Amino acid sequence: MGTKVDNRIYWPESLNLLPGKLELTARTLCARIISEPWGFHKIAGKITEPMLASAGNYGDVIRECQKQFDSAGRYTPQSISLEIAYATPAQLLELGMEDSESDISFAFAMFLDVYGQKVAYDIWHCIPGWLVMGKTGDEIAIESERMRRESGAIQFNEASDGKEEFEKALCMALEGKTIHYPVGPHLAALRRMIKCYEQGDYIIVAALSGVGKTFYAIGEVYAAALDGIPSCLINLENTPKNMQKRLWQKHCGEFFQTDLRSTDDITRKRLQAWEDVKRFPIANYNPGRALPSILSAIRQDWHERGIKLAVIDYAQKIYIPGFKGPRNYELDRVSAEFRELALELEIPVIVLAQMKQEVSKYPDKRGGMYDIKDCAGFAQDATMVINLHRPEYFNIKECDGIQYPEGYADAAVVKGRETGTALAECRFDPVQGFHDIPTETFTQFPVQPPKMERPNMEEDIPF
Fold it and tell me: What residues are paired with 423 via a beta bridge?
């Protein structure tokens, strides 16, 4: 507050810095808006015209971004510069590279804080005039509140409380109608338990090294592609070329070899399979292992293509730049960020994770919910945890006296808010990966995996 001397208020010198602070935070917000068009939806409903008017030339740029986002759902530095003569694409691109360590939400919060100070200063200037008009203290308080609301200095929580969405689902259910999210598990045995994924689902798929996590990831995006549903696969372990080869193998049903010379019919079939794969709405990225780069790639693809599924392969490859602390704390933060991403974009996010190596010492080589390597936070954050198992990989021939069929595999739901624990039988081969059981080879295998004694081992605590 100011100091009262001789019935006048003298404000501190720091108030003189307000215009400069407002310009600086407006510049930072403008930079983040230019560089993160896929994140503009997070602040689109919070920007008001008085805010833009106070931001000068940066306000003009933000206003144009908002206009193009409202009409087309996207914008670029080039499209903005076409409407703002004094801002060239090169200048906007250079501006967008500033303050890259912050994101659009943080930049808006900083701008809103300084803008709120500016509105408070405007209100303070109006008070003498209101007193001259004979307004009472209560009336002045009402006028002050009105100015704050109209300026946008007071932000309202626009998040849904879920009542409207659930009421719609309830009414449809009462009429026998159902609307499912378009993406579900690619295995038929899992789909019998889980009709579809839900918006905001965070699914962990865990397995020991070598069991086939990447095959499962490919199976999920491949199944979505066959239905024409766009998806994003973050691949941190294989080259993009290798991933395209695996997709071709799965679609064509055969191994890729360096010599594929054959009859004309078979050659046409192989070429057609590749043409199909090229048209699949699958984006396969390797943006690097830094968490911010991965999150940015997914958000950008959501903004540009409207993806309905994101798959990350795999969690233990990811790091947070500048993080200081034990590895399990770092991965706990990684998991929390992916959980938040699923809720923010309202799409299922599937994260592949590696099990700790102690699982290979268990008699049945099956992991539990908390056997994920380096961090138990994944199981705690997830809406669903699925453990993959291939006894053939460990040279296990039978279970409880029952012989495993050739290629036997299963996906055990060890955590499911809607399903509880369950086991889905499937098959595995190095071309198709995890796939449905052919009807002619279906065998009645025990519905639940056998319960085995676990060695008494401590949780992984990396130092």
Answer: 412
